[in-house]
Amino acid sequence: MRREHPNISIFRRLDPSNLAADPTLFAPGFVWHFFNPHLPDIEGDYVGLAGLQAFFEVLETLTAGTFQVEPISVTAVGDELIVTHVKDRMMLNGQPIELDAVVVWRMVNGCIAEAWDIPSVYTEHPPIPQVA
Questions:
Q1: Looking only at Cα atoms, what is the longest distance across the chain?
Q2: CB 120 within 8 A of CB 99
Q3: Residue from 109, 24, 17 nearest 68 by CA
Q4: Cα separation values, 114 from 27, 30, 107, Å
Q5: Whole-angstrom Cα distance, residue 65 to residue 117?
Q6: 7 C-beta neighbours (distance < 10 Å), count
Q7: Are 112 and 26 contacting, i.e. CB atoms less than 8 angstroms apart?
Q8: For every one of its 132 residues, what pLDDT tens digit does the chain have, with 9 covering 90 and above?
Q9: Reading across the β-sheet that carries 95-108, which strands appear in turn?
Q10: Sign of CA dihedral 6, 48, 23, 84
Q11: How far apart are CA 6 and CA 20, in angstroms?
């Protein structure tokens, strides 16, 4: 039986629906880096837990509350990095959008110190119809 990487065990404590549920999860100087040339108004760095919460509040407003993230995979890379592959779904400017993204998380002393959110902005997938 293979043991889970310790950084992944720490990362799994993250609750995307309640980022403040475990404030000790984030390093005091945590930085969220967001890259997306299609959303230049929100590109940039967001500092601290409050900055991360503000980023997602803006994203919720832009997508009229439709933004969803589906985790696909989580991989530890060495002793400091975790790479997550996610599928993002949302309505943007009245259009349904689905795209792949990776988020690279940097772990330092048992805390999330930094993250880079990198969407595949040139390869969008047609949304999958929901079965009623």
A1: 47
A2: yes
A3: 17
A4: 8, 5, 7
A5: 19
A6: 22
A7: yes
A8: 678 899 999 998 998 888 889 889 999 999 999 988 878 889 999 999 999 999 999 999 999 999 999 999 999 999 999 999 999 999 888 888 888 999 999 999 999 999 999 998 766 555 545 545
A9: 44-47, 26-34, 111-125, 95-108, 81-92, 68-77
A10: negative
A11: 21
> How far, in Å, CA of 7 to CA of 108, rounded?
9
Show the tokens assigned to 62.
């832009």
Dist CA 2 CA 105 (whole Å)? 22
> And the tokens for 104?
């690279």
Cβ atoms of 63 and 90 closer than 8 Å: yes
In which element (H, E) is residue 118 found? strand 111-125
The count of residues in the chain is 132
